[in-house]
Amino acid sequence: METSLPINVVIFPVLAALLSSLVALGAYRFPWLLRYLAFLLLGLAGISAIVSGGWVLINDISISGELPLGLPWLKWHIRLEPLSGFFWVIVGILTTAISSYGPSYVREFESGPYSLSTLGFFTGLFVAGMLLVLLADDAFLFMIAWEIMSLSSYFLVGYQHLQVTHRRAAFLYLLMAQLGALAILLAFSILISINGDFTFATMRQAELSPLWANIAFGFGLLGFGMKAGLVPIHVWLPEAHPVAPSPISALMSGVMLKVAIYGLIRLVFDLLGTPHWSWGIILLIMGSSTAFIGILYALMQNNLKRLLAYSSIENMGIITIGLGLSILFIANGHPLLGALAMIAALYHALNHALFKGLLFLSAGSILQATHEQNLENFGGLIRYLPYTAFFFLIGCLAISGLPPLNGFVSEWLTFQAALQTPSLTSGVLRAVIPLSAALLALTAALSATCFVKVYGVTFLGQPRHQFNHPIQEPAWGMTIAQAFLALLCLLLGIFPTTIIDVIEIIPQHLVGYDLPSASEQGWLWLTPISAEVASYSAPLVLLAIISVWFIFFGLLYTTKKTRRTSPWECGFGTVSPRMQYTATAFVMPIQRIFKPAWRIEELVKEQTDKKTLYPQAIRYELHIADRFWLILYEPFIGLVATIARQIGRIQTGNIRTYLAYSFFTLLILLWLIT
Fold first, then answer.
1. How far apart, in whole angstroms, are the C-alpha atoms of residue 583 and residue 496?
2. Which one, out of 60, 88, 119, 151, has a CA that is 20 to 30 A from the CA of 126?
3. For the CA atoms of the chain, what is the radius of gyration?
4. CA–CA separation, 652 vs 327, rounded Å?
5. pLDDT in tens, 10-39
6. Which Gene Ontology molecular function entries are recorded, alphabetically (predicted)?
7. Crossing angle for the helix pair 304-331 and 257-265, nearest 10 degrees?
8. Are 197 and 212 in contact (CB under 8 A)?
9. What does pTM read for this prediction?
């Protein structure tokens, strides 16, 4: 329902983020302005976004109005309702965590060559841009806010611009972002062309022919899918996320990708009317391939942040699977199952924001402590970073989909939706959806393997590398931010019925149905379909885990006397860190099985003693390239370069030639006009 509350209630978080951005400009002379005041304002923006977005969502209300900005004949229309309020909460949670994490994190840049004011200014602008995208109720404001979000994040990706890899990653991101923005603009243009109005309310009334609706969907999927990192338009993501400062990586992966998902939901389920079943097939296939390929590439990475970036691609695929299932069920006359699939997608969007934000912040703590991202140089860090190790473990368990954490709930709901295929009459769908579910199950198993590798190689065993500086826990502000997100991962896993009761209002607006059976057994049991089909009790699972834990260790330490001794060393004498599994060796069996998925170059370099001819050192190098980059993008880049060279021939440097070009162009234009 609409409400007449003052517009200041919803615009305040945006203003606080913009004020944070302006205050940060003074950090070039007074660094404390960024550490304390700018991040304090950013935290205020985050908390107010959580409150206002959550309030709109819980009370099922809509706040709308106009801002005296824009063009004289085109005001900015804003609206906060349950769907945008849900994503506002996601932005607010991560922004609040960053406001605690940031002050201690930026200290390492105070004495470096990079400007603190630049970092603070574009961080505030980035948050404001994302909030405005969610608030926009017309295409004009939406595109302006989208560009603010994209351009500010471009400067943040290229923040450490003295390094060539950072500049290249930022340029690739900017190029893909602008191509995506063009596609979104074309999708909006098709809707605007019907009634000639930029507002979303008028767009909803547009009656597109099936052809133009499909074209608009295609442009929207290209634009929003590019920003979300869906395969094969994902290539910018694993390049940009690793080079951005860690808090920015958390914002980009945890929030910006969800803003793209919001745009896709807004276009497909709201502005384009009733979605066509073929759109669901496209999203289902694209989501399944994105999830599977994303985790395959994540497994092969030895750079910690690059691995997390590929894992984000996988999770965007899982969300897209949920949206595809929702469309298929709605189009085939099963809106209740469509609501279930949409809730699974929304729940996973929230969950991914939490555990991926946690993992990126923990990775930032590791990076700040070790100045290293290569997994092969880690090992035994749990001795030096116990708090970070604990919170990173929570994130690994959550992203692996293990109960009782939040990642399990949303993936379980997605599986429950996929298992309802017998309700469909189409033989094609009854064949495709189980295949997608099987691929999702394989993806979940590979994800668990991936994060067993990450945690084991990073925190367990013996140190593989001797660092020249002491390794210690980061400042308390960084630890508190991780604890905040870890606690939310646990709470959203233990009380899923409470969360579903809140967010089910979104499919009720978009689909016309909610999920009344989810809490019919009370808060203790989650029953997405019915108690006879499937049910899950996270509190009981947690109680069982704690009970088994205490029983096991109680029996272990009370029945037998503890004796500590060194493990058997296989006759080699002293155990060396070189005897441990490396990150590369851990996933070697998977690499052999799925070898066609990558382009792999293996190099073995052996140094021998010239006298004895015995090997002194053996070095193994593994280089893995993204096949999509090689197949789709490199040929296109070569074509563009060839065309540019041919066009460059007209650049003679002769002023008379240029005047002749202008003259003949003018003649052609006059001829066309007449």
1. 35
2. 60
3. 27
4. 56
5. 889 999 999 999 988 877 777 777 778 888
6. lyase activity; NADH dehydrogenase (ubiquinone) activity; oxidoreductase activity
7. 10
8. no
9. 0.91
